[in-house]
């Protein structure tokens, strides 16, 4: 795939380039948000990977640029990386539609997992860092309905949020596809969410629910 | 600096120290007499007013505040002797409404000083003042004595020192004595009046302005130190984010690649690389927590509501958050409020055994109110160094107030008011 990486820290830029090169992708890099917009305008990549905090203000320029790119090129897959996760950022991204991802930079270290997530995003899936889900699950006002979930169902919920398909979840948990489908239906029913087989809509629904 | 020194206003005290002839010819002795002779009128009115208030049960408590109007009259009367006057020591920062005014005045120590002055003044000083000032009419009587003798021939004064001048021209001796005594009495009465004004000033004026200035400077420098600390925290956060955190993330990526290349082979090296990967991951998570505690990026990006919601998410005790902010408060207020909520929730988790806590933040144009309550066992002691002292410092630097109610058995309510000088 043709990938544009926006990241102001040279070290991380090199690390990402090295990893994605290794998997046979073509990588171009930029160091800030305006550079990212210009680079994508010059030649549309298959997927964009961007840091959130970048010059000049070191706030959430990367995220803003990612959302701007989505406006200019609807459906352009974007994976946002950050040193820490904010479910608000996750929500903004997920609301931008399909083919978005939001991960902690730590996840890149799990190379195979990271590259798989990038593929999912490029394929129009949605990937949200388990940390976001963990934090949302920890929110107290969520406790009551979530307490109705069994611990296995909660595991499945976290995997849904990460954008896993029923099949992938089944492999992760070493159970049958049918069992996962049943879990998913139970979760959606317990949380009063509309049943959905489409991954992105499932993630969206779960996150919307978790945000309350 | 102004090159022309301001003319110091003339006062009775300066006139006293000046040329005797000029002093005797000036209005000061007469003004001093007027000052001393007029005091009994407010004194009488005050006593009447207090008796009336005490007679009506519903407003009896208001008698406690009667020192305020009397003191105002007294500060105004001082101008007879000292035109510079006396500044009112009452604070102008009164909450709106009658209750706000009453509450502020009842809490001010000045109010009680004024009440004490009113009592001492009305029951003693005012009458002593008048008695001293009566020396002046007595001397005037001597001066005018010949006129009396002419107008009232049947008037027979008692002899004074064996001398009774009921006839002219002997009566003019009294005039001579009176004229001689007049400057003496003038000095005496003016001197007394100056002393009285000094007493009034010491009781009814704000404390020494030099101390005021020093206090203001101290408060400012404390605020500057805190601002500098907040700025420093933000800088440290930036440096850690751009430095150590990025390096560790890079290390994690490198180790990740190494693991990829060693995939499926179990050798001592791969075990070590796995271990290094785990350790780097743990270090990064710990560093993330540390950086968050120094200054959360979410506070900079999204403001107080978002940052407090995050604090609540991190709290081991379930927390309800209820925030209503019209706009974003200033950075120091925001940082202080976040710090206060964070510390308070830490205290709740550590000491209270609470099952539930609540954070409420409200703001209007003038102040921001933070309330953190829990249903724990109470007994939080602000002096026992449970972090409450630090909170009080944060609040007081911004001119805020902090109150803790924590009866044994709970509930504990921490309330902080921060002025937002918008």
Automatic annotation (TrEMBL), chain A:
Domain Response regulatory, which positions? 2-120
What CDD domains does its record include? LuxR_C_like, REC_NarL-like
Spell out the molecular function terms from Gene Ontology. Answer: DNA binding
For the HTH luxR-type domain, which residue ranges apply? 142-212
Q: Which SMART domains match?
A: HTH_LUXR, REC
Record GO biological process: phosphorelay signal transduction system; regulation of DNA-templated transcription
The 4-aspartylphosphate modification is found at 51
- Print the keywords alphabetically: DNA-binding, Phosphoprotein, Transcription, Transcription regulation
Q: Which SUPFAM superfamilies did the record assign?
A: C-terminal effector domain of the bipartite response regulators, CheY-like
Keyword Hydrolase (UniProt): no
Spell out the protein name for this chain: DNA-binding NarL/FixJ family response regulator
UniProt organism field: Plantactinospora soyae
From TrEMBL, chain B:
Protein name according to UniProt: histidine kinase
List the Pfam families: HATPase_c, HisKA_3, Sensor
Sorted alphabetically, the keyword list is:
ATP-binding, Kinase, Membrane, Nucleotide-binding, Phosphoprotein, Transferase, Transmembrane, Transmembrane helix, Two-component regulatory system
Q: Which GO terms describe its cellular component?
A: membrane
Source organism per entry reads: Plantactinospora soyae
EC assignment: 2.7.13.3
Q: Which reaction does it catalyse?
A: ATP + protein L-histidine = ADP + protein N-phospho-L-histidine
**Origin, by domain of life?**
Bacteria
Main EC class of this protein?
transferase
Q: Does the keyword Isomerase apply?
A: no
InterPro entries (UniProt xref): HATPase_C_sf (IPR036890), HATPase_dom (IPR003594), Put_sensor_dom (IPR025828), Sensor_HK_TwoCompSys (IPR050482), Sig_transdc_His_kin_sub3_dim/P (IPR011712)
Annotated Histidine kinase/HSP90-like ATPase domain residues:
334-422
Sample GO molecular function, one term: ATP binding
Query: Which sequence ranges are marked TM in the entry?
Result: 43-70, 115-148, 171-194
């Amino acid at each position: 795939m043709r990938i544009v990486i926006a990241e102001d820290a040279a070290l991380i830029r090199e690390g990402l380039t090295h990893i994605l090169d290794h998997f046979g992708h073509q990588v171009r890099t930029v160091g800030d948000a305006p550079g990212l917009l210009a680079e994508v305008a010059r030649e549309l990549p298959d997927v964009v990977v961007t840091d959130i905090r970048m010059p000049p203000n070191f706030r959430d320029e990367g995220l803003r640029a990612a959302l701007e790119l989505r406006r200019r090129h609807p459906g352009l897959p974007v994976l946002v990386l950050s040193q820490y996760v904010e479910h608000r950022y996750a929500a903004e991204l997920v609301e931008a539609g399909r083919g978005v991802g939001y991960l902690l930079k730590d996840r890149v270290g799990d190379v195979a997992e990271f590259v798989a997530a990038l593929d999912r995003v490029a394929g129009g899936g949605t990937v949200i860092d388990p940390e976001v889900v963990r934090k949302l699950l920890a929110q107290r006002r969520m406790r009551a309905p979530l307490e109705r979930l069994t611990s296995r169902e909660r595991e499945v919920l976290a995997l849904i949020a990460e954008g896993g398909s029923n099949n992938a979840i089944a492999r992760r948990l070493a159970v049958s596809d049918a069992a996962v489908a049943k879990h998913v239906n139970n979760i959606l029913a317990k949380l009063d969410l509309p049943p959905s087989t489409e991954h992105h809509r499932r993630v969206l629904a779960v996150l919307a629910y978790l945000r309350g | 600096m102004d090159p022309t020194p301001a003319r110091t206003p003339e006062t009775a005290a300066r006139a006293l120290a000046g040329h005797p002839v000029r002093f005797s010819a000036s209005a000061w002795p007469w003004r001093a007499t007027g000052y001393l002779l007029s005091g009994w009128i407010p004194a009488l009115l005050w006593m009447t007013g207090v008796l009336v208030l005490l007679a009506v049960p519903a407003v009896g408590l208001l008698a406690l505040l009667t020192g305020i109007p009397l003191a105002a009259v007294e500060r105004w009367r001082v101008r007879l002797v000292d035109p510079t006057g006396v500044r009112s020591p009452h604070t102008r920062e009164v909450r709106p409404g009658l209750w706000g005014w009453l509450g502020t005045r009842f809490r001010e120590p000045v109010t009680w000083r004024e009440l004490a002055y009113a009592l001492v003044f009305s029951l003693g000083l005012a009458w002593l003042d008048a008695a001293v000032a009566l020396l002046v009419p007595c001397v005037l009587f001597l001066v005018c004595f010949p006129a009396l003798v002419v107008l009232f021939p049947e008037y027979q004064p008692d002899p004074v020192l064996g001398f009774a001048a009921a006839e002219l021209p002997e009566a003019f001796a009294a005039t001579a004595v009176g004229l001689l005594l007049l400057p003496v009495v003038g000095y005496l009465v003016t001197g007394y009046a100056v002393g009285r004004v000094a007493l009034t000033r010491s009781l009814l004026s704000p404390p020494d302005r030099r101390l005021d200035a020093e206090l203001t400077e101290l408060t400012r420098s404390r605020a500057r130190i805190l601002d500098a600390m907040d700025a420093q925290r933000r800088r440290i956060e930036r440096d850690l984010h751009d430095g150590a955190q990025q390096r560790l993330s890079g290390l994690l990526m490198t180790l990740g690649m190494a693991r990829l290349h060693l995939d499926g082979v179990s050798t001592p090296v791969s075990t070590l690389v796995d271990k290094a990967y785990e350790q780097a991951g743990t270090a990064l998570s710990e560093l993330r927590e540390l950086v968050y505690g120094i200054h959360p990026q979410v506070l900079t990006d999204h403001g107080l509501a978002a940052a407090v919601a995050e604090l609540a998410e991190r709290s081991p005790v379930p927390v309800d958050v209820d925030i209503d902010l019209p706009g974003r408060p200033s950075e120091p207020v925001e940082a202080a409020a976040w710090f206060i909520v964070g510390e308070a929730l830490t205290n709740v988790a550590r000491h209270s055994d609470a099952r539930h806590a609540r954070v409420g933040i409200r703001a209007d144009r003038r102040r921001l109110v933070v309330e953190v309550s829990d249903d724990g066992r109470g007994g939080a002691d602000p002096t026992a160094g449970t972090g409450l002292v630090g909170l009080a410092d944060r609040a007081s630097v911004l001119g805020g107030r902090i109150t803790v109610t924590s009866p044994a058995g709970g509930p504990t309510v921490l309330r902080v008011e921060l002025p937002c000088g918008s």
